[in-house]
Design brief:
It is a single chain. With about 475 residues, the chain is of the alpha+beta class. The protein has a single domain (about 30-480), classed as Cytochrome p450. It is built from 19 helices and nine strands. It has helices at about 5-35, 55-65, 85-95, 105-110, 125-140, 140-145, 150-165, 175-190, 205-220, 220-225, 230-235, 240-260, 275-285, 295-310, 310-325, 325-330, 335-340, 375-380, 425-440, and strands spanning about 70-75, 75-80, 170-175, 355, 360, 365, 370-375, 440-445, 475-480. Strand 1 (about 70-75) and strand 2 form a beta hairpin. Helix 7 packs antiparallel against helix 8 (about 175-190) and helix 15 runs parallel beside helix 19 (about 425-440). The protein binds protoporphyrin IX containing FE (HEM). Protoporphyrin IX containing FE binds near residues 315, 415 and 426. Belongs to the cytochrome P450 family.
Amino acid sequence: MGFFPALISWLPFLLIALLQLFKKKRQAKNELNHLPPSPPKLPIIGNLHQLGPLPHSSIRQLSQKYGPVLLLKLGRIPVVFVSSAEAARQVMKVNDLASCSRPPLAGIGKLTYNHLDLGFSPYGDYWRQIRKICVLELFSVKRVKSFRFVREEEVASLMNSLSQLSCSATPLNLTSKIFTLTGSIIFRVAFGKCFEESDDFDRERFYELIHDAETVAARFSAEECFPGFGWILDKLNGHNERVERVFKALDKFFQGVIDYHLKPGRTKQHDDIIDVMLGIEKEQIEQGHVWLTKTHIKAVLLNIFLGGVDTSALVVNWAMAELCRKPELMKKSTKRSSKHCRKQRKTPMLISREVMSHFKLNGYNIYPKTMIQINAWAIARDPKYWENPEEFCPERFIDNNIDFKGQDFEFLPFGAGRRGCPGIYMGTVTSELLLANLLYCFDWKLPDGMKEEDVDMEEQGGHCLTLMKKTPLVLVPIEYIPS
Ligand code: HEM
């Protein structure tokens, strides 16, 4: 046999030996750095192939094998995934300050005018100032209470229309009704007008834009994952065009609503969120120290747009889907139990954090610039803390004083720590009012021929900030007439 044929026959063994050597070297390096465990990676893509269409579920499976603190390489980006309450507490309480920044991702950077919003801006003086305005002025209990009439009018109008539809006893798309309602409330609270009064913005376009913006906000660009050549993929799959298109549509919309608020002689029933922010800008101009401009206002509007509509709606949608699979529970739903029903364990992963200074997590080193993702979905299903974790059982919250505002780390629907949700009160009053009305005013039946077990509970795949139901919930409303 000649030299080259012999070399070719040995090539596979040579490659295996080289890979083993490479693996050993990497393991030794990891042990030296004492990084969290990682499943084996592939060249270039790292662990990307191990994330299925439901990343929170893939991460839970990997965590069951490798432990609750897991390091994955998404292309070139190292991300630490946390899937236990103890480790989440270490991140969001013990090391909150060291880990409470946000990664400067390009897509969301574009939508937020270079991170001028609250939710995606890096930790620092600006974030502190804008958070203070949001907490004290925009989402405070007093402000949310001042919008009570908006919530009540919108819910009453939905109940009226459902009551008319119930006469024909035909199935209706309840999911779409729920999203329309939370959209209408946010539209009025933030922008001061109803959909009907908006000349160039119909409901369909509004939801499409929210969904597009959520998708952009939750995604890395290929260039971020594969520096140097990822831009070719971004060009081919239309990523850059999508970001640009969504940005332009949002900017036009936000500019339009701000201009509408600045029109001389505009009549208003009540100060909405834009009025409040324009008032703060005016005050700053008078005091000669302006840092909140129209651009900052637009960035905050994006957070309200993303944070306020889908979140409250999907809580109600999942609760109704679960209840119609348990008719006996649906029947005994009272105001008290509607409060418990909306405590859904459907928050997927929290918004990514970025580490600012080194700390240790379960004994592993976590270095600055590492991204951390808390898998709230997996934690809320951990049999260590929850009996029958997969079962919908709102009774588990009765006489159980588990805190849902970020003090108990086995249940994190609103996150925790410095970056916890500032819209908790606004979100909970909306979902509670809607759910209570849907349960009080109607009996809900499944369409003819459908059984409880036929209700599709599949989660929508893909990278998104929220966890949608894959198919809409279709039910028949039967008006409840008290005897
Ligand atoms: C039921 C409704 C809601 C749910 C389930 C929810 C959930 C969350 C979660 C899980 C986070 C991430 C927390 C973390 O990373 O630790 C968050 C952050 C945030 N939410 Fe909400 N939210 C809701 C309603 C709202 C509303 C109504 C608004 C505003 C109108 C809002 C605005 C925000 C903002 C701005 C942040 C980012 C805060 C920061 O980074 O400083 N949310 N929310």
